[in-house]
Design goal:
3-stranded antiparallel sheet, globular, BirA Bifunctional Protein, domain 2, 8-stranded mixed sheet, alpha+beta, 10 helices
């Protein structure tokens, strides 16, 4: 019997049954987003390495980089947010008359250790509002996340929100450590940041902006979490993650990144958005159905 060559570690073929689930899930989210005023865009899978580098902090080491035959330094996209920032900076007319709300589905690539819910190639479904710093756009992103989850008939979920300004007095290394709080032993976090620092963060109160978002939403599934950190460097304000009861990792996340687009546009352009991890989302739904 001839044995076909394997796929590289962390990459996989998608069989028909899973492909159908993915398509159904994506179509459900698309319907909600388009009803909420988001429009589709697409960006290249490959960017200049310089475009991506310097945006992700320590996570930058996971970028797949290579040099093409012309000697150009290129990279596979790490996420869909930095390519969106470049795209908006090249198409500023899109925000001339108000917020530009977009969604995009695409493959992203990260050279990390494959494990449950984590692949080196996976599908992200992003949705963002660009051009407004008003709290109403933060609310719109969170409420849209909830609408998508409800449309997928998920009930046992929580949307945890926080404000990155809670960590403004701390070194970025502290933020990276706090971001691991649900992944490692508490003692390890205390060792890295100090028990007093961890306690201070745990006892922090929601900022006025987070209080405002919670008050407007009036949704029992949206909760404040002082230890929610989101490790990527480009976040500047409200951040969020979606947890599904019984599933070990978040299935969606995002937040406000008011300075990122300015690195390309040379002027500040506020933005806020979120992203579903399609692979994790389907995995979590399968686990719930099998209980």
């Amino acid at each position: 019997m001839i044995k076909a060559p394997p796929t590289p570690k962390g990459f996989r073929d998608i069989l028909p049954e899973l492909a159908k689930k993915r398509r159904k899930t994506i179509n459900t989210i698309v319907e909600v987003l388009e009803e909420s005023g988001f429009v589709p865009v697409e960006t290249p899978t490959i960017e200049f390495a310089e475009t991506l580098k310097g945006k992700y902090g320590e996570e930058e080491k996971l970028i797949y980089e290579f040099t093409d035959r012309g000697g150009r330094d290129l990279a596979l996209r790490y996420d869909l947010t930095v390519p969106l920032a470049r795209f908006v900076a090249s198409n500023l007319n899109l925000i001339a008359k108000g917020p530009f709300r977009r969604y995009q589905i695409g493959q992203v690539f990260r050279g990390e250790k494959p494990q449950k819910g984590r692949w080196r190639e996976f599908t992200q479904f992003d949705f963002d509002s660009v051009g407004s710093s008003d709290i109403s756009e933060d609310v719109k992103i969170i409420s849209t996340v909830a609408k998508c989850l409800d449309a997928l008939r998920l009930s046992d979920y929580k949307i945890l929100i926080n404000d990155r300004s809670i960590f403004s007095e701390f070194d970025p290394a502290v933020v990276r450590s706090i971001d691991k709080i649900n992944k490692v032993q508490r003692s390890e976090i205390e060792k890295e940041v100090g028990a007093k620092t961890l306690k201070k963060i745990e006892n922090a109160s929601p900022t006025p902006k987070i209080k405002g978002i919670l008050q407007i939403l009036q949704n029992s599934k949206v909760e404040f979490s002082s230890t929610l950190a989101r490790g990527l460097n480009y976040y500047t304000g409200m951040i969020f993650e979606v947890e599904i009861e019984g599933y070990p990792t978040s299935v969606a996340g995002g937040g406000r990144y008011d300075n990122l687009i300015g690195t390309f546009a040379k002027k500040q352009i506020p933005a806020v958005g979120g992203s579903f991890g399609i692979d994790r989302l389907i995995d979590a739904m399968d686990e719930l159905q099998n209980k």
